């Protein structure tokens, strides 16, 4: 018999016997709840037998039987009352623990976030997908689903979602498409590095979501609570249900600011900033301009993160400003990287190292930011260097640029769509889900081993659009994603190392070397980033114009052609 902990107050298990009760008491439990009706199994002791032995040991016992697969709303309410009335901790049991977990999930649906309920149950080994609508509906059985139905539902209105909606519309004008996203504002996030360096005005990186939704595409302004892929349904907050024939999942990823102790309390003050937030990027530039001497830290968390070069871009542009202001010699620049290399594609490292030396930046590998004391201006790092004992160090700073830890969104991690690490599980070539044939994914949320950048989404959107279209027409996948991603590494104001690569770190330059040599810093790459990419994003990518982004074609089993 194994106890599966749900909360400090409640654990669940499969069927117990009277002989198990001493061990249950020794484990610290003070009460038990039986959720299995007597006589359900031939080898099952009656509740009366369990109760008698429990009372002799000083344990309280409660009988709340539930028929398998038939948990009623009133039973969930009774379970919640019992948990409040009984001394804790409590052990609830049934045949496998599933009914007890279901009762707990429904009893807390009014006072706990649905994703937290689903994650807690999943961590204990129980899938609450069968009652997710009831959980989202506050624990009650929905009486009216009010289903809306679309040919294609797209979850996420970011770069991937708007682009794939436009690309689909360009292929099949009559397609009934809905985009689900609760946000009012759509951001051009690649521009925030330039905001943090005083190059872009922040307002140029934001537009209203309504102005970008393609004509003829429905915008459902709501948050997704859960998925029911077996029923071709997306459950929204409030238990509204949206049905689909085909689903595209691209909600981006979650910036986990709370994963660093003390960070949330000090962001935007005490010299703590981040270009990963629209409202904080201007503060980065304010700090850079104001720092004349002292220590500047730039952090990078464990992979994967969006735009893996962004943490060091902030360092280079800051260093360039201090160099131009002739105060660089008074500033101690340190790059605190949880990983073990400066950049994952070795061909670009020599050019980057030239700038590390120019700015006299110290590279600290295997240093992961775990806590910040803003008022004291101290940052704590967990250091796990190879062949050395793990240790913790504290580093003082005058300015710190933080790249937060990043994960898939909570509602993705607890869903049937995710892999073991929480990302949407897709075939890396077709971007089709490995388990559900009518689901595709693109952008930062899926698990293909590519760089998580807007440039990657620009290439992925036409692939997904081509493959969804082919599926609607009854054909095989037509588009192949080669892993392309781009990271314009802003090494100084006016020059960029334009890193372009695909799966396995294969170099995939878009231009001849005489135009832009991506392994070297060039003015041409800077002009591309500053002058050309923003209008390409707003006016081409989000409009379904696939300039330099036509998907490679699958010509046969496992083969691809340009």
Automatic annotation (TrEMBL):
<feature type="domain" description="Beta-lactamase hydrolase-like protein phosphatase-like">
    <location>
        <begin position="2"/>
        <end position="109"/>
    </location>
</feature>
<dbReference type="InterPro" id="IPR029021">
    <property type="entry name" value="Prot-tyrosine_phosphatase-like"/>
</dbReference>
<keyword id="KW-0809">Transit peptide</keyword>
<dbReference type="InterPro" id="IPR005939">
    <property type="entry name" value="BLH_phosphatase-like"/>
</dbReference>
<dbReference type="InterPro" id="IPR015904">
    <property type="entry name" value="Sulphide_quinone_reductase"/>
</dbReference>
<dbReference type="GO" id="GO:0070221">
    <property type="term" value="P:sulfide oxidation, using sulfide:quinone oxidoreductase"/>
</dbReference>
<dbReference type="GO" id="GO:0070224">
    <property type="term" value="F:sulfide:quinone oxidoreductase activity"/>
</dbReference>
<protein>
    <submittedName>
        <fullName>Sulfide:quinone oxidoreductase</fullName>
    </submittedName>
</protein>
<dbReference type="GO" id="GO:0016787">
    <property type="term" value="F:hydrolase activity"/>
</dbReference>
<feature type="domain" description="FAD/NAD(P)-binding">
    <location>
        <begin position="150"/>
        <end position="263"/>
    </location>
</feature>
<keyword id="KW-0285">Flavoprotein</keyword>
<dbReference type="Pfam" id="PF04273">
    <property type="entry name" value="BLH_phosphatase"/>
</dbReference>
<keyword id="KW-0874">Quinone</keyword>
<dbReference type="GO" id="GO:0048038">
    <property type="term" value="F:quinone binding"/>
</dbReference>
<keyword id="KW-0560">Oxidoreductase</keyword>
<dbReference type="InterPro" id="IPR023753">
    <property type="entry name" value="FAD/NAD-binding_dom"/>
</dbReference>
<dbReference type="InterPro" id="IPR036188">
    <property type="entry name" value="FAD/NAD-bd_sf"/>
</dbReference>
<dbReference type="GO" id="GO:0071949">
    <property type="term" value="F:FAD binding"/>
</dbReference>
<dbReference type="Pfam" id="PF07992">
    <property type="entry name" value="Pyr_redox_2"/>
</dbReference>
<keyword id="KW-0274">FAD</keyword>
